[in-house]
Specification:
Elements (H helix, E strand, L loop, with lengths): L2 E2 L5 E2 L9 H29 L6 H21 L12 E3 L4 H11 L1 H21 L1 H4 L5 H23 L2 H7 L5 H20 L3 H4 L1 H20 L7 H5 L17 H26 L8 H21 L4 E3 L1 H10 L4 H16 L1 H7 L4 H26 L4 H19 L9 H7 L2 H15 L32
Antiparallel strand pairs: 1-2, 3-4
Helix pairs in contact: 1-2, 1-3, 1-10, 1-15, 1-17, 2-13, 2-15, 3-4, 4-12, 4-13, 6-12, 6-17, 6-18, 6-20, 8-10, 8-17, 10-17, 12-13, 12-14, 12-17, 12-20, 14-17, 18-20
């Protein structure tokens, strides 16, 4: 049922609403369609980076399987694990750099050993104690994390728009055929969302991807260009089951310390994504939602490492879909999780999906990245007074994040580990926002009280009370 929330957007289906099954299936497929390329790209990038190209297909399979399982748990919960929110889970690029570095130096056994230990320990501890640390993550901090996640995804989307790695290898990066396909998808998605109603608007992104894929196939046959390659479909097996401890486990202190910090940042991303989803309703997540969502991140990441899956966290592109379509139903996302798990058990089906050209996904991901950033801005504008203090925090945090994103070579003088750590735009924005908001006096600082509620003549006073917070 459609309704306009206070400070949010027009909601077509609420969190607990169940759209008709045919519509739910299509909406779930839309979520899968938007996240499958970036999710599987993590496995391909890592496999190539550590010299294990032969295992790339298996790594992709595990990413899809555990993305699906974690998505279903997020939507429906298992005990205290899960948030009951429409959040799609997948492998995050936050961990890619460290995974390649550690994998090349110590092997994937050290990577999966570190994930096994730090996944549930770090995010589980944060989730367990989130009520106590919640004051450190006000809308100002979480909103900035959402903003930088969206803005940081835009260059990735533009890389897809230009054709991605396949186009680079073929020497056609930025070719008119790729730009045309991306523009077609973007135009259809925006046009259907802005100028139509009902199911057509709700499925605007999926329809755009389908039309773009059909156009890419037609262009392949018409021009002879290898825009769509069906070769991998014939080579893939129909069914392949996961293999526990395939890569083994080693427990390297450097790897464990690195992934502990990255899981802290990942938890901030998840907090930001959950805030981005509930911002559609004009609210922040509850303590229980935060706790369950973080438990899900950590526990499923640790379990997945046993089978060779990389860390699983919330996917920002799909936060954009929720805000773009107004469909907040967790049941829709749960159906999307089922599809992902099935894809993870059937490499042939997964191979068929990944034949969709990067440019087709580029048009959709570009739109979703912009929507993620916009939802972060809305979270800040709705819940934060942009006075001098808060404006400076926004300026510094986004300035550092975007500066590192656009000029990563500026940190070349740092030690390699420090360059890897501080060279992450999300880390730079999140930590700077967290530190400034914590230590600069103001209403949202957890170390200082908000201005007291006036009850008498002192009502005209604007001087806030300082001291330890009672929250």
């Amino acid at each position: 049922m459609s309704n306009e929330t206070d400070g949010g957007i027009q909601i077509e289906y609420g969190v607990d609403d169940k759209p008709p099954l045919p519509k739910s299936i299509l909406l779930g497929l839309q979520h899968v369609a938007v996240m499958i390329v970036p999710a599987t790209a993590v496995a391909y990038v890592v496999a190539n980076g550590v010299g294990l190209e032969a295992d790339a297909a298996y790594l992709v399979q595990m990413v899809l399987l555990f993305s699906g399982l974690a998505t279903m748990v997020q939507a429906y919960t298992v005990g205290p694990v899960g948030a009951r929110l429409p959040i799609v889970m997948g492998s995050s690029f936050t961990f890619v750099g460290a995974t390649i570095d550690i994998g090349a130096s110590f092997g994937l056994a050290a990577v999966f050993g570190a994930i096994l230990v730090t996944g549930f320990v770090v995010e589980g501890l944060i989730g367990w104690q989130f009520k106590r640390i919640k004051p450190f993550f006000p809308p100002l901090v979480t909103g900035l994390v959402v903003v930088i996640i969206g803005l940081y995804l835009i260059p990735v989307a533009m890389d897809y728009v230009a054709g991605g790695t396949a186009a680079e290898a073929a020497g056609t990066f930025g070719g008119l055929q790729h730009l045309g396909l991306a523009a077609l998808v973007l135009a259809i998605a925006v046009g259907l969302n802005m100028f139509t109603r009902g199911v057509t608007r709700l499925l605007s992104v999926l329809v755009a991807i389908v039309v773009g894929y059909a156009a890419a196939i037609a262009l392949t046959f018409a021009t002879g260009l290898e825009i769509v390659d069906f070769g991998p479909v014939g080579e893939a097996a129909w069914i392949a089951l996961p293999s526990p401890t395939r890569f083994g486990f080693e427990f390297e202190p450097i790897a464990i310390a690195t992934f502990a910090v990255l899981f802290l940042v990942s938890s901030m991303e998840t907090v930001g994504d959950m805030s981005g989803v509930t911002a559609a309703e004009g609210r922040n997540p509850t303590d229980e939602e935060f706790r369950g969502g973080l438990f899900n991140d950590g526990l499923l990441s640790s379990i997945g490492s046993i089978f060779g899956a990389f860390p699983i966290t919330s996917f920002s592109q799909n936060v954009g879909i929720v805000n773009f379509t107004g469909v907040m139903s967790r049941h829709v996302v749960g159906i999307g999780g089922v599809f992902l798990a099935v894809l993870g058990l059937s490499p042939k089906v997964g191979a068929a999906v990944t034949t969709i050209p990067s440019a087709v996904f580029g048009g959709a991901v570009l739109l979703m990245a912009g929507m993620v950033a916009a939802s972060g801005f809305r979270l800040i504008v709705t819940h934060v007074e942009l006075d001098r203090r808060n404006t400076v925090i926004v300026a510094v945090s986004l300035g550092l994040g975007l500066g590192i994103a656009t000029t990563p070579e500026a940190l070349a003088g740092l030690p390699s580990r420090a360059e890897l750590f501080f060279g992450q735009p999300v880390i730079a924005t999140a930590l700077s926002a967290l530190a400034l908001n914590t230590f600069v006096p103001g209403d949202s600082s957890p170390l200082f009280d908000a201005a007291p509620v006036a009850t008498d003549a002192s009502a005209d006073s604007e001087t806030p009370a300082a001291g330890p917070s009672d929250d």
